Amino acid sequence: MARKRVTMQDIADACGLSRNTVSKIFNERGTVSEATRKKITKAAQELGYFQFLEEKTSKPGTHSQNIALLTHSKPMNHNFGSSFIINFTDQLCRAGYTLKMYEISTEELTQKKLPPHLMLENTVGILGIELFDRDYLHMICGLGLPTIFVDGYAHVNSSLLCCDLISMENIASIIALTERLIASGAKRIGFVGDINHCNSFYERWIGFCTALGSAGLPLDHSLCILAKDEEPYGDVDWLFARLEEMPSIPDAFVCANDFLAIHLMAALKKKGLSIPADVMVTGFDGSPESAVVEPPLTTVQIPSADIGRLAADILLDRIQNPDRPFRFTYVKTIPVWRDSIR
């Protein structure tokens, strides 16, 4: 008996939600809470929705070979990753390929090894996401398979990698955020995040520094929180302690993503400061949480669904045309102005 096709309505029924709410997650339209997103994603996985996407083909006689998704951090755990993967997978399956996901362990990352169950002879292309280790990326490129990475290690765009890369545009949007803060009266501005965590964080730092320089404002490291990504940025008490170490609280903070911004806002409130009256805060990602935090967070919207579809197109083109020049593709992002700035 043929397996019943899992639909969005099936997922909605399992969650006790409307089909429209489920559609918002998979089509990246509208805003839902993080708890709802996780509930929908979990139900979709349990019902086999993603497995169906991986296994279906739309054209008779097309390829039945695999695309390997390599990641060090499960991409379905955050808003960008879930929307990206759904649309990337759908695009590949329409071309007759199957996506197989492999989570790279810390040991495999350190030793530059592939997962033992990854069969290269059945793999025609590779997608790397949430992989920011320089040597590991170079090892994957050395396999000689069509490969595309989403983002990469800091300064990846200055390396001669034999692969395609795709990323959201970071510099222009951060410049726009910082210039808006300056126009709103901020003269002392700090940055929050590990600028070497990944290339996107590094580019957001570059945009921040560029905007300060263009306005003739100094870069004051004592107003920044630039600790390594391994530090507990999600711990409000830890962030509170970093604020206490500053000579004074700046007029505004530019944060490398929404996760950092939201937790920083909690630490600022714990310090008795009002946002945006005492200090302004911006994020980056356009996460659902950014719209519901109090006050709503000024952020940058990433078109993750479009990036997923475009990444699939680039990889499919690379498979068909392996000798074409490698490409580094940026996809435009859009600032979203909310009440966390004046």
From TrEMBL:
Pfam families: LacI, Peripla_BP_3
Residue intervals of the HTH cro/C1-type domain: 3-50
Keyword Repeat: no
Gene3D superfamilies the UniProt entry points to: 3.40.50.2300, lambda repressor-like DNA-binding domains
Domain of life: Bacteria
Keywords: DNA-binding, Repressor, Transcription, Transcription regulation
PROSITE patterns, per the entry: HTH_CROC1, HTH_LACI_2
GO molecular function annotation: DNA-binding transcription factor activity; transcription cis-regulatory region binding
Residues of the HTH lacI-type domain: 6-49
InterPro entries, sorted: Cro/C1-type_HTH, HTH_LacI, LacI/GalR-like_sensor, Lambda_DNA-bd_dom_sf, Peripla_BP_I
Name this polypeptide is given: Uncharacterized protein
Species the sequence originates in: Clostridium thermosuccinogenes
